[in-house]
Amino acid sequence: MSLDPRLWGKAAGLGKNAGGAHRTHPLICHLLDTAAVAEVVWDELLTSHQRSMVVGALQVPEEEMRALAAFWAGLHDIGKIGVPFQLHRGGPKNAEGELLAQELCGERGYRFAAGAAQDRQSHEAAAHWWLVGMFEEIGYPSSRRRPQSQLSHAVAQMLGGHGGRYHPVVRGKDYRCPAVRHPGLGTGGWEEQRRVHFDGVRRVTGATSVPQGRMTPGAAVVLTGLVILSDWLASIEVEIQARLTEEGWAGAPEDLDAYWKTAREAALRLVQKTDLLGTGFTRPDPVQCADETSLLASMEGQLPDLVTEHGPGLVVVTSSPSEERTEAALRAAAALGHAAGARGAARAGAVCVLPWANPLAGGAAPVALPEIST
């Protein structure tokens, strides 16, 4: 079966064509866009230690792991090949206001069971459910006794969480026949197209290796960040508009190869245009604190020596919400980030996290600051 480029992946913000219909970006193109960005993120944004940690965990050579990372990132939206997403009422429409995907419904291969369009499973969860079986099918390590420990499930769950919500473990009886529990996945042409898209991304990225290692927590942190960042960058509307395919684009193998070349060139330019390259932490300057018993003074008095002695680690600040606590957390982030060679910090609520400073810093012991509390 040939790839169907009518299956859309992006439409919002892409405008309309001369006939008044919404422009769409074929799903396969968005998958390849994301895979191409993932290659650049792997090359330019991950540290050598981060790459080696992932390589060590998955037990494949670095160049092959790079291809696998791109392949996995490219599969993140495979769950969009399903009835609820393609027929979503907010999806792209023709000049008469009818969903473009309605054309699919009149074809034998895309018929679906009653209630499929009302299946409330998200496209992210659909990717998780469907990919477990596919990864197992192509030989990724699996264990029927503990699905959550198998690589096939770990990668699928990671990709299913690219929207920020990770979904529960899927048992064998469900992922081997996922459409039984979730008819929105569809069978027939829906299943065939998921497989065609899967095979297309795998072929183009060259990810033929079958890793025999396991998904460690550290590797999962790095790869999750890579997938989410790659998807985000590949979803910038103005950039997609510059790569929209012409009407009649067939998605044949030679079309995918040509588009892959375009996507890779665009990905490198895209990342170069961001403020991500060359980022890092400078050595923090000492801060003079008027109150020597304050939280910030305690941080300044202890942390530099601890980092010098022990290297990067983890700082836990226990204090009531305040500007001082926020400043103390950010000072800690700066100190640990500089010591670890981290490229940035992610801050959420009351927690300041350095996802690339502690678990990826080479086995340094956590730094505990028991005195830093109020």
Map the helices and strands.
Layout: E1 8-10, E2 25-26, H1 27-45, H2 48-58, H3 62-74, H4 83-86, H5 102-105, H6 123-137, H7 151-160, H8 172-175, H9 178-181, H10 189-205, H11 217-234, H12 237-241, H13 253-273, H14 295-310, H15 323-340, E3 346-348, E4 351-353
Antiparallel strand pairs: 1-2, 3-4
Gist of the model:
It contains 15 helices and 4 strands. It is an all-alpha fold and 374 residues long.
Question: Overview of this structure, please?
Answer:
The protein is mostly helical and 374 residues long. It has helices at residues 27-45, 48-58, 62-74, 83-86, 102-105, 123-137, 151-160, 172-175, 178-181, 189-205, 217-234, 237-241, 253-273, 295-310, 323-340, and strands spanning 8-10, 25-26, 346-348, 351-353. Strands 1-2 form a two-stranded antiparallel sheet. A two-stranded antiparallel sheet has the order 3-4. Strand 3 (346-348) and strand 4 form a beta hairpin. The model is unreliable at 347-374 (pLDDT under 50).
